[in-house]
Amino acid sequence: xxxxxxxxxxxxxxxxxxxxxxxxxxxxxxxxxxxxxxxxxxxxxxxxxxxxxxxxxxxxxxxxxxxxxxxxxxxxxxxxxxxxxxxxxxxxxxxxxxxxxxxxxxxxxxxxxxxxxxxxxxxxxxxxxxxxxxxxxxxxxxxxxxxxxxxxxxxxxxxxxxxxxxxxxxxxxxxxxxxxxxxxxxxxxxxxxxxxxxxxxxxxxxxxxxxxxxxxxxxxxxxxxxxxxxxxxxxxxxxxxxxxxxxxxxxxxxxxxxxxxxxxxxxxxxxxxxxxxxxxxxxxxxxxxxxxxxxxxxxxxxxxxxxxxxxxxxxxxxxxxxxxxxxxxxxxxxxxxxxxxxxxxxxxxxxxxxxxxxxxxxxxxxxxxxxxxxxx
Length: 376
Ligand SMILES: Cc1ncc(COP(=O)(O)O)c(C=O)c1O
Prior knowledge:
Layout: E1 14-18, E2 21-24, E3 29-33, H1 35-38, H2 47-59, H3 70-83, E4 89-93, H4 96-111, E5 115-119, H5 128-132, E6 149-152, H6 157-164, E7 169-175, H7 188-200, E8 204-208, E9 232-235, E10 246-250, H8 269-284, H9 287-304, E11 310-316, E12 319-324, H10 329-338, E13 341-346, E14 350-353, H11 361-375
Parallel strand pairs: 3-13, 5-6, 5-7, 7-8, 8-9
Antiparallel strand pairs: 1-2, 2-3, 4-10, 9-10, 11-12, 12-14, 13-14
Bound molecules: pyridoxal-5'-phosphate.
Pyridoxal-5'-phosphate binds next to helix 4.
């Protein structure tokens, strides 16, 4: 059997990783400023992560959601404390798309309505409801348009108010910082207005923090810069440092109903144990603070660097976009093949910096030095 060939691949085979570095099968070291797409939060092969994996796997990897699972309760308590959402409820699944799928379903169950408002450059995943609120016709199949969606530019509060006034909107979904769309940060004023208009009209506000959450922005959640509290928050990517795991944080105003949501694998024992260790490491190693500090340093240095064709630098913490007025393809290739640095990208012109949250000044300086060389 052949693989279903949907991924354009770099000619690199990653064999193992350690901290902020990955290594190919010949032992070549790469600086990982991509984190496997913002997934590696506490670093590759963290010793505490490996220990938890070994100990939990030796005990129990999985048992069904039909029995009590104290690890789920422990994770919910920890996440509530670390994130500042102690009073919220946690539902666990396996991927970001699934998290948004369930968030949208909950909003629709709660309001009895179907329409969703979303943003033009956002990405929320590839399952049916998640892709329907992602404005990219290339990844939407005809069967995905199952409910009405209206798209707005980030910041268009008047458009959103007018749409909500029609009375048929179940939810607004927005990323804390848009990732795939090229690192666009909603303003504090816009987020506060959005919270106000959704609250006043009983519209569910869903914050997709799948990429911008778990400390990446320099706060636990990017929306916390605006001081708002959404009704639902979705998390995935870094929450178990590469083990497929995701969650939906649900406000106390939602009453759970037996059987309304469910999953086979979501909340499995191994994933919960790993997610608990990730939160412990994030706290003990002060990785949220580190993301803010290293991100600020990177931003300052990038601002003072002569970057030919630079259109705009955008970012918060360790979620930085470098937008060129030309396609990044050659620069990114030189970074990987000549300088041995992985970065992310968005569209055709934005390089995305999404390193593990444990990078230090040494890795930042190494990146800056190699990036400068790759520009030439
Ligand atoms: C903001 C955001 N939401 C949702 C998703 C989908 O997550 P997954 O690929 O785990 O389904 C992604 C993935 O890149 C994302 O960046």
